[in-house]
Design brief:
Layout (H helix, E strand, L loop, with lengths): L2 E5 L3 E3 L7 E2 L3 E5 L2 E6 L9 E4 L3 E5 L1 E3 L20 H12 L4 H17 L2 E8 L9 H12 L2 E8 L18 H15 L8 E7 L7 H14 L3 E5 L3 H11 L3 H7 L7 E5 L5 H10 L2 E4 L1 H6 L7 H6 L4 E3 L12 H16 L6 H15 L16 E5 L12 H8 L5 E4 L2 E5 L2 E2 L4 H24 L1
Helix pairs in contact: 2-3, 2-14, 4-5, 11-12, 11-13
The structure holds zinc ion (ZN).
Zinc ion (ZN) binds next to loops.
Length: 457
């Protein structure tokens, strides 16, 4: 039982339904939950009180799409530029060398960087399961617990290898029965559906070009039986559209509808290439979208129609996507990218800064099916990012601190998850950054060594 008062904040950006921004307000917390936002009576007593008069508070950011293991191969292959299919074909054989230690190190590295950028909840989509991968999700659960972020691991899967006309090598695909059995196991073992949950599991066949229709259909059935959410990639590139029409006889969205996926328990990464009828269908069926602007631009996939999705009442969250197509884990910078990419596509009025911030908070919460995070209000979890308004990078932003911190992509001074500090003075509280970097470098080197040895055999 502990109480914490963040007193006299320069500004509290609540992201509530009215979009209230409160000057000089305090945030009172009890046992990880916000109990009051506004004025606090001088007679109220707290275990800890922190003077926050130089800080701007926003709800902790929510990352709706990621492949944390890709932090092992960031920067690789993209100095010149490759589209999605060529890029995947190059990287799949490298990722085939993944082991548990690498999954552990990369999960911590990615989540740690996300925390340092103001993120308090992250999804992940791990879909590479080479031989020896039985405990990959277990390694992720342990790694995430040590960083202290809320974690939505999804048990990804691929059962359509090159032998059967898919894109990935057969060595990193698994038989459908194995995938479904392990999916059931990890949901039973780790999924906590309750309020304030630190760990949830979703199910996530990778894409129409690496998962069979049977796997899509049966995974959806299992997820609904076990009451967990469904996630996949969709309509990311024109290559995917062409593949889907050639191999499946319909476009990717119609394929997903055919396998019973277009329901309110589904969130889809990318959705760059959509028709107006698709957007209408997503809005009516409450399908959510994870927008990944940096990845889409880096791979030359296109600019997602985010303005149209929002106009069509579709919930849109933000994702940094895998670190091999970003190549960082910086979510506040992704908010800026969402502003830039929407304006580049549809004009200057297409994405106000506060709306982009809403994507990374309320939109992300909608993608992950949560109503306990994404907003600073009494009754919500105390997940907060505090930015120093008196820091050098923020100097000159007083007239609009929110636009300032987003467009500068400022780094938070402190980050709280369930009222517990995860970042303080701009550094991780629970992990040694140098030691983590060394562990990650060792894993990355070993992964590339394995690939080179295999390639030379
Ligand atoms: Zn992805």
């Amino acid at each position: 039982m502990s109480s914490l008062l963040l007193a006299n904040l320069r500004l509290v950006v609540t992201m509530d339904d009215e979009g209230r921004e409160l000057s000089g307000a305090s945030i009172a917390n009890q046992d990880g939950w916000i109990t009051r936002v506004g004025e606090v009576s001088p007679s109220d007593r707290f275990d800890e009180t922190i003077d926050c008069s130089r800080f701007v508070a926003i709800p902790g950011l929510i990352n709706a799409h990621h492949h944390l293991y890709q932090t092992l191969t960031r920067g690789f292959s993209q100095s010149v530029g490759l589209g999605l299919f060529d890029w995947l074909t190059l990287l799949y054989p490298i990722w085939a060398g993944l082991d548990e230690e690498m999954v552990y190190a990369s999960t911590q590295t990615g989540l740690a960087e996300l925390a340092l950028s103001g993120c308090t909840t992250s999804a992940d989509h791990l879909y590479v399961f080479p031989p020896g991968s039985d405990a990959f999700l277990d390694a992720q659960a342990e790694a995430a617990g040590a960083v202290g972020l809320r974690f939505h691991a999804t048990r990804g899967s691929m059962d359509l290898g090159q032998r059967d006309g898919g894109l990935p090598p057969d060595s990193i695909t698994q038989p459908r029965e194995v995938i479904l059995k392990d999916s059931e196991r990890v949901v039973q073992r780790y999924h906590d559906p309750g309020p304030g949950s630190m760990l949830r599991i979703g199910l996530a066949p990778c894409s129409p070009f690496s998962a069979t229709p049977e796997l899509m259909l049966e995974t959806a059935g299992l997820a609904r039986e076990m009451e967990v959410r469904l996630h996949t990639h969709l309509a990311e590139t024109l290559d995917e559209d062409e593949y889907s029409r050639r191999e499946l006889g319909v476009g990717p969205v119609d394929f997903l509808d055919r396998v019973s996926w277009l329901e309110s328990d589904v969130w889809l990464a990318h959705c760059v290439h959509l028709q107006p009828s698709h957007i209408q269908m997503f809005g009516e069926r409450r399908v959510s979208v994870a927008h990944c602007p940096t990845s889409n631009m880096l791979l030359g996939s296109g600019l997602a129609p985010v303005r149209d999705l929002l106009n069509g009442n579709v919930s849109v969250g933000l994702g940094v996507d895998g670190s091999a197509s970003n190549d960082g884990n910086d979510l506040i910078r992704e908010v800026k990218q969402a502003v830039l990419s929407a304006r580049a596509r549809d004009g200057a009025g297409a994405m106000p800064v506060r709306q982009a911030l809403r994507l990374a908070t309320r939109g992300g919460a909608a993608c992950l099916g949560r109503d306990d995070v994404g907003c600073i209000a009494a009754g919500k979890a105390a997940d907060l990012a505090l930015f120093d308004a008196d820091s050098l990078v923020m100097a000159g932003t007083d007239e609009d601190l929110v636009a300032g911190l987003v467009l500068i992509a400022a780094r938070p001074d402190s980050v709280y998850v369930h009222g517990r500090p995860v970042v303080r003075n701009g550094h991780l509280v629970r992990l040694d950054e140098e030691a983590l970097a060394a562990r990650q470098r060792a894993s990355s080197r070993l992964l590339l060594e394995r690939w080179r040895e295999g390639a030379s055999l």
